Amino acid sequence: MCAKSKTNTLLDKSPEAFPEARGDEVLAFQLQKLVAGTSHLQVHAQASLKFLLRKKLRQSRGENEKTPSTPTPLPLPKELQEPKDEVNDLEHETHSFNRQISAPAAVNKELSLKEALKKSDEKKKKGVQDYSPASDVPKMRREAKSTVLFPHASTYPGCGRQLPAYWPEYVLDLFQNVRREQMPPVSPAECGFRLLCGSHQMPHPQKASSGGEDSYFLCANGSAAGVADGVGEWQWRFGLDPRAFADELMQGARTTGEQTQFQAGLEAESRAKLMLSEGYKTTRSFGSATALVAALDPTGQPKLGVANLGDSGLRVLRWKSPSECTDQSPGVFVAHRTCEQQHAFNCPYQLARLPEPKDYADLRAQGLNSLVKAVEKSGSAKQDTPCDADTYTFEVQEGDVLLLGTDGVFDNLHDHEVCELAQAPLEAAFRNREKATAWSIDPARLAHAFAEAARARSQDSSAKTPFGHCARSAGLQHMGGKMDDITVVVGMVVKV
User: Domain tally for the chain?
Assistant: First the structure.
C-alpha cells in the first residue's frame, strides 16, 4: 500500500523533485507531460513510468535485480497501432483492394503447382522436352517494348460480370455508321453460303513507315479469309522483314482456298487445314508467324472450318432472338470462338521457315552470321507445323458476323466488349425480323470500327485487358492496354 502511494506521488512531481530519476525515467516523465490531456495515451505513459520508477526504487534500496514478474503491457488502442509488415511471399501478397481472397489464392496456387507437376511427369513419360526460348529460334517471344511488365505474385481472380466500358465518341460514331451505300454484285452461278468480307489494318505507331508485320487474305469468291502475324524479332535481331513470311503464307492459303471452293468430299475443317498447310509450303522467306484460316464448307452446308495456330482469334457473333433479348444483356452474343495456343506467356505457337545448311554460305556473305549461329544452336529443336494447329467446325447461320483478328485485337478487347460494340449495327440490321439482312452492313466499315476500338483500348494506361489478365496468371502485372499491330477481318454470313 505504502509503495503504491509513493509511486502515485512521484507521478505528480517533476524530474528535479526526484533526483534519482535519470535517462529513461526522465524521458518517460516528459512523454507523460507531452500527451497530457489525451486520456488513452496518458494511461500508457503512466503505466510505463510506474514500471521504470519501481525498478529505480529497487536499485536504490539494493534489492535483487531479479524482477518477480514483468507486468504485461496494455494493448495500444486500434487507432494507434502501427500497421504490421506484410508477408512478401506468393501465398500472401495480394492487391490492396482484394486482400480478403488470399486464402483461396493459396489453395489455387497449390492446385496449379500440382497440375504443373502432373503435366511435367506426363511430358517425361512421353519423352517431350520442355520449351526453352533461349535455344529455340523460331518460337520467339512477342515484343513487350510497349508494355509495363514486372514480377508480381497476384491473386486477382478475374472479373465475372463487367460494366460497360467507356469508349471515345469517335469510336461509337464509327459503329453507328456502318451502313452499306450500295449492294455488292453477286454471281448467279454461286449457291449456298458466302462471306461478305471487309478488312482494316493499323500498324503499331513505331512501325507506321513499314506498315507493320500483320498480313491477311480474303478470297474473292467469299468462301474463306485469314490473318497472320509476323514475329518482329526477325527484324530487330537479324535485320529481316518479318512481314515477308506472313504475306507469302497468306497468299498461298488464298490460292488454295480459291482452288478448293467446290471440291467434293472436302469438309470445312479439312479445307481450312489444307489451306494452312499449302500456304506454308509456298513460303520462301525466312521468318515465322502465327496464322488463322476460316473457310466455309465447299458443299454449301452451313458450316465453317477453322485452323488456328498461335494467338490470333476468331469470334462468331450472333443476334439473339427477340425472346432471348433482355435489358440486362446485349442482343449480341459470341456463338463460337477459338482459343489461343501458347508455349509460354507471350510466346505463341508459330510457323517458321529456317535456313538450311545449304543457305549458310549466302547468309554469311550477306552479314547474317548471327542468324546462322542461332539456327545451329537450336539444333534439332521441335518446330511447330500446320499439324499442330487447332481445328474447329462451327455451325453458322445467315446473319452471323465473323470477327477475325490478330493478337493486337483480342489482347485489348474482351468478348463482352466486342458484343457491346456490335450491338448498335446489328440491332439496326436485325430489329425488324421480317426485313432482317446482313447485306445492309458494310463489313469494311465494321472492321474499321473494331480496329479503332482496339487501338483506343491499347492506348489506355488504366484499362483492364485480356492481356493484363493473362500476365497476372503468369505472375506478372501489366498496366493498361497493349500496343501492337492491329488487323481486323469481318465476314458477314449471307445465303445466295
Answer: 2
Evaluate if residue 273 carries a pLDDT over 90: yes
227 vs 191 pLDDT, higher one: 227
Per the document, the length of the chain is 496
Give 441's DSSP letter. Answer: B
The C-alpha R_g of the chain, in whole angstroms, comes to 34
Residue 96 confidence class, pLDDT cut points 50, 70, 90: very low
- Which among 5, 74, 72 has a CA at the least distance from the CA of 42? 74
Sign of CA dihedral 388, 231, 271, 450: positive
Let me know the angle formed at the C-alpha of 494 by 190 and 386, rounded to the nearest 5 degrees. 85
Same-domain check for residues 303 and 175? yes
Let me know: does 465 contact 156? Beta carbons within 8 Å: no
What SS3 class is residue 55?
helix
Answer yes or no: are the C-beta atoms of 485 and 243 closer than 8 Å: no
Of 64, 88, 107, which residue is a domain's last? 64
Distance from C-alpha of 467 to C-alpha of 471, rounded to nearest angstrom: 6
Q: Which three cell numbers stand for residue 126?
A: 512421353
pTM recorded for the entire structure? 0.67
Chosen domain end from 64, 91, 106: 64
Is 375 a member of any domain?
yes
The pLDDT of residue 177 is 84
Cell of 24: 529513461
According to DSSP H, which parts of 344-400 are helical? 360-365, 369-378
Tell me the residue range of the domain where 248 lies: 169-495
